Amino acid sequence: MKIPSPCIDVCKYKFNYHCIGCSMTKIQKKTFKKLKSNDNKKKFIKFIYSQQKILGRFKHWEKVYQKKCDKKDVSFKDLII
């Protein structure tokens, strides 16, 4: 199973250095790409999901990322719980 990146291909950093699509900063995007284990990737996804809740404005992300997970046959709910 390959856990997809939380990036949803918007990549515009107009909200306090956070992408308006996924809430990640450029450093966070680079960090995710370097993660090797699925456990670390799951922890990272949970962190990003929490970050979105704190920052607000990212309600669209969940639906788009869930579709991305479905294509890879990955359970979205298992990643955020």
Describe this structure in words.
- With 81 residues, the chain is mostly helical.
- Helices cover 56% and strands 0% of the residues.
- The protein contains 4 helices and no strands.
- It has helices at 26-34, 38-55, 59-71, 76-80.
Summed up:
The protein is mainly α and 81 residues long. The protein has four helices and no strands.
Distance between the termini: 17 Å
* N to C succession of SSEs: HHHH
Low-confidence stretches: none
Chain-averaged pLDDT: 95
Main sheet record = none
Number of strands: 0
Q: What fraction of residues sit in β-strands?
A: under 5%
By secondary-structure content and strand pairing, the structural class works out as: mainly alpha
Topology record:
Layout: H1 26-34, H2 38-55, H3 59-71, H4 76-80
Main traits of this protein?
globular, mainly alpha, 4 helices, 81 residues
